[in-house]
Amino acid sequence: MSRGARPASAGSANALELRGVSRLFGALAALSDITLSVQPGERRAVLGSNGAGKTTLFNCITGDFAPSSGIIRFFGEDVTAFPPYERIRRGLRRTYQISSLFAGLPVLDNVYLACRGVSRNRYSLLRPRRDDALVHAAEGLIDAVHLTAVKDQLVGELAYGQQRQLEIALALSGAPRFILFDEPAAGLSPTERRDLVHILTGLPAHIGYIIIEHDMDVALRVVESVTMMHNGRIFKEGRPDEIEADPEVQDLYLGGGHG
Known about the structure:
Blueprint: E1 16-25, E2 28-38, E3 43-47, H1 54-62, E4 69-74, E5 77-78, H2 84-89, E6 92-94, H3 107-117, H4 133-144, H5 160-171, E7 178-182, H6 190-201, E8 208-212, H7 216-219, E9 225-230, E10 233-238, H8 240-245, H9 247-254
Parallel strand pairs: 3-8, 3-9, 6-7, 7-8
Antiparallel strand pairs: 1-2, 1-4, 4-5, 9-10
Helix pairs in contact: 3-4, 3-5
Keywords: ATP-binding, Nucleotide-binding, Transport
Domain ABC transporter: 16-256
Protein name: Amino acid/amide ABC transporter ATP-binding protein 1 (HAAT family)
């Protein structure tokens, strides 16, 4: 266990548990018999080449796709048949490979709307005051992802890396218990990637996450466990140092030359 992760107490439920999860698209098996457990507070990377099944795995966990077979539990509760919004209400969050933001609104408004969307008063038509608790929550999230200097700037004017940071702030809204990060480092500069590592390692210890990432230098620095996927199946699991040193992983994913 590592940096920020808190082991589950004896007998407590896993944060996320998949048992025999498969997903078929016609005759194509995008996922085959995935069995996976992640403890509360654990940070894990799911790695693999394109087509390995990583994003399909996320889609099944979030409810965007229904699994063809198997069971998905979130903190002990069977959520296999739950729609995405019910999983969100239980504390599951996700970012996507393609940004989905309100480009014509300021940064603060984007985060405020995310906080409002998971609050009890989300349907209220009243304009928030500056002392609104959700406004303060949004400002705290903006600070956590290092965007305070641009909080009043239109999202469409932000650099690409800043927009990716904003997506993390949205995922943090409403006290999440677990987050799925889908390639957050894609398209970032080296400086932006270092900032991303700092943001992810600085998240509250109780928030576990799974990160899909092609940049191994980012992925292996922000997790304590790794699951490798290949052709829709789990291929290897271990600590980052074990995965990095594994000859089969190097041959299949790293070209044998990752140092």
